[in-house]
């Protein structure tokens, strides 16, 4: 469990660097999430962080996953959610926790992998929308892809609106491109 929590920390750090790089005129830029621009992807990510933190803390979230979590300062909203999210994942009794998600109730280790995937992939979405693939933690992407291949944990989520069928990626593709292809997404 500590390994996945360490990866969540790295994902939060990576996505934080990416969010900090968003300039005012880029919030409406298109992303690999074809129906969502940068602001919508970030709002979804912040909402997820807040909902997960509430679930792990045994409290009710103050909004739904897709409420307006960003207000007038998206970067500050992400920073605040990151702090709360990180603290929730570092609780001592976490391995025994259950997390209620739209797809059902999951044990904390499985929920942690879902959350890790969300934070990493949506960070990639924003980085690609900005043309800033240099901000992506390729090592983390490679590790997450390896875990997904080993556990086959993504397979139950391959359904419309969640994760699409795996797409081919060139053998020399960077880890982030191989990861999003595995999750059924393309960019460019």
Structure overview:
- It is built from 6 helices and 2 strands.
- By secondary structure, it is mostly helical.
- The radius of gyration is 15 Å and the shape is globular.
- The relative contact order is 0.16.
Short recap of the structure:
The protein has 188 residues and is mainly α. The chain has helices spanning 2-20, 38-57, 74-89, 108-130, 138-151, 175-182; strands at 98-101, 104-107.
Strand order of the largest sheet: 1-2
The first-to-last residue Cα distance is: 35 Å
State the total count of DSSP E strands: 2
Question: Which percent range describes the beta-strand content?
Answer: under 5%
Q: Name the poorly predicted regions.
A: none
Helix proportion of residues, in percent? 40-55%
Mean pLDDT: 90
What structural class should be given to the helix and strand makeup?
mainly alpha
For this entry, give a set of tags.
globular; single chain; two-stranded antiparallel sheet; 4% strand; 188 residues; 6 helices; mainly alpha; 2 strands
Ordered list of secondary-structure elements with their pairings:
Elements: H1 2-20, H2 38-57, H3 74-89, E1 98-101, E2 104-107, H4 108-130, H5 138-151, H6 175-182
Antiparallel strand pairs: 1-2
Helix pairs in contact: 1-3, 1-4, 2-3, 2-4, 5-6
